Backbone:
């Protein structure tokens, strides 16, 4: 069943009056969560993963110390934002002790992710933890089947891979019932809370994981994506994300909900940790156990970045002609455009076919079986509520990557085309700068409807991200190009350019 108070150690339980106070704050990221923590927990959980690995390899930190700190922080995150459907702190600490014993005996780390705690959307099986996927009818069962010998004993292949690299799961995060929704809500935990502004959505369906990453409740996390379910929540909460193409990360042993193939995405506080985790999963050669994974080891040509002589051309889409980005999103695109121009990187206007056409195709693919699995699971919860042909709409122009804003309409097409994407936080909304345009003329009726939802005060302080798109199964090169974009934006800020008025 959902993670409850009894699964949180007594010394990590917040006083009821403190929980009530925190839940009354519009924003719990930043000062609120940080001030709840002791110095050691704050220090460890705010240290980047590469440094944590270095500290553990030198014996300056133990895996138990690292895992304890993140478990404590995750416990606080859950108590003030309702993010964990399953808690595995005891299991995690046991695995951390095994990591420390291995290091003491062999004088080396188990693998690239030794001692790093992670969380994942409750769409994966972890031995020792139940899986509900947000369905009440699945509580106490294995995917709705009572008495199954697999209950709490089965493990998804991805989890096995991560454990073999030394990573340690500490819990499973909340998700949207049925997994395909723009919000994160289920009848077990209710609505997940956006830690930057509880009046705004976390996005969905991997909103619980994105919120956990925004609060630094683990070093990295996983969600699933068939139409922006990783990219959008990550953008709403200001964390980095990778949505790979199908066939790169194994979904074997995961809970599959709809007909359209879902991909597993990674979320975290930096590009570096996303790349490290992606590279680590490939190092376990998942294609030897899952035929759905392409036999494609990590392409080391991009470890040192792209060749300096390489001519880079980035496609650039500011508006899809259907829905105009809200003012802070448009400003984020201008920031990136200015940064790329200062870095002398070519930008090419990119004008793809209609996003509405892609959205229609996406809907027919995702609902191709009538969402039978969803309805069966909902019936268990006492709710009554074709062979598919994938269509390639267009082939690429002469671009290395494409820069676009990050929103639902802009993300859906990537799943139809199976393009990988990386979400990069750029700025935050500012009510004094990102004012509504009094001369705005809508492009479509949908455009008018969407722009009417914009309230500068309501969105003030919200993270704003952009999306970088690469060619199919070219994630390694995409990481290298994302680093170029990140460096360009960082250099723009260092140069003293006023990004609020770009």
Residues:
């Amino acid at each position: 069943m959902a993670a409850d108070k009894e699964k949180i150690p007594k010394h990590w339980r917040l006083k009821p009056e403190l929980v009530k106070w925190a839940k009354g704050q519009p924003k719990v990221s930043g000062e609120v969560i940080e001030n709840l923590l002791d110095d050691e927990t704050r220090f460890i959980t705010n240290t980047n993963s590469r440094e944590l690995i270095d500290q553990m390899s030198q014996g300056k930190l133990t895996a138990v110390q690292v895992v304890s700190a993140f478990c404590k922080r995750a416990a606080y995150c859950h108590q003030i934002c309702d993010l964990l459907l399953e808690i595995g702190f005891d299991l995690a600490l046991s695995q951390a002790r095994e990591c420390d014993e291995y290091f003491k005996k062999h004088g080396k780390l188990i693998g690239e992710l030794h001692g790093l705690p992670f969380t994942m959307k409750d769409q994966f099986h972890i031995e020792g933890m139940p899986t509900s996927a947000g369905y009440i009818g699945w509580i106490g069962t294995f995917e709705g089947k009572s008495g199954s010998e697999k209950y709490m004993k089965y493990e998804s292949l991805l989890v096995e891979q991560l454990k073999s690299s030394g990573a340690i799961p500490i819990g499973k995060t909340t998700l949207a019932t049925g997994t395909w929704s723009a919000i994160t809500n289920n009848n077990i935990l209710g609505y997940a809370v956006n830690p930057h502004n509880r009046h705004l959505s976390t996005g969905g369906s991997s909103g619980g994981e994105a919120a956990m990453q925004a609060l630094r409740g683990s070093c990295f996390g996983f969600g699933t994506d068939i139409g922006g379910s990783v990219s959008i929540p990550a953008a709403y909460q200001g964390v980095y994300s990778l949505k790979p193409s199908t066939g790169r990360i194994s979904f074997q042993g995961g809970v599959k909900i709809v007909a359209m193939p879902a991909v597993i995405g990674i979320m975290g506080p930096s590009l570096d940790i996303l790349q490290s985790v992606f590279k680590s999963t490939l190092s376990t050669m998942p294609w030897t156990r899952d035929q759905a994974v392409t036999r494609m080891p990590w392409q080391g040509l991009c470890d040192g970045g792209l060749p300096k002589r390489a001519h880079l051309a980035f496609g650039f889409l500011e508006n899809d002609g259907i829905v105009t980005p809200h003012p802070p999103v448009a400003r984020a695109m201008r920031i990136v455009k200015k940064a790329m121009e200062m870095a002398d990187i070519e930008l090419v206007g990119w004008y793809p076919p209609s996003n509405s056409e892609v959205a229609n195709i996406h809907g027919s693919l995702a609902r191709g079986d009538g969402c039978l699995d969803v309805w069966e699971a909902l019936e268990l919860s006492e709710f009554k509520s074709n062979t598919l042909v994938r269509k390639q709409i267009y082939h690429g122009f002469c671009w290395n990557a494409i820069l676009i804003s990050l929103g639902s309409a802009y993300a859906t097409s990537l799943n139809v085309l199976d393009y990988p994407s990386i979400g990069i936080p750029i700025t935050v909304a500012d009510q004094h700068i990102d004012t509504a345009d009094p001369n705005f003329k809508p492009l479509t009726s949908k455009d008018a409807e969407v722009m009417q939802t914009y309230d500068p005060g309501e969105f003030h302080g919200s993270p704003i991200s952009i999306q970088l798109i690469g060619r199919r199964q070219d994630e390694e090169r995409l990481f290298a190009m994302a680093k170029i974009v990140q460096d360009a934006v960082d250099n723009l800020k260092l140069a003293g350019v006023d990004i609020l008025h770009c």
Remarks:
- Residues 475-494 form the longest helix (20 residues).
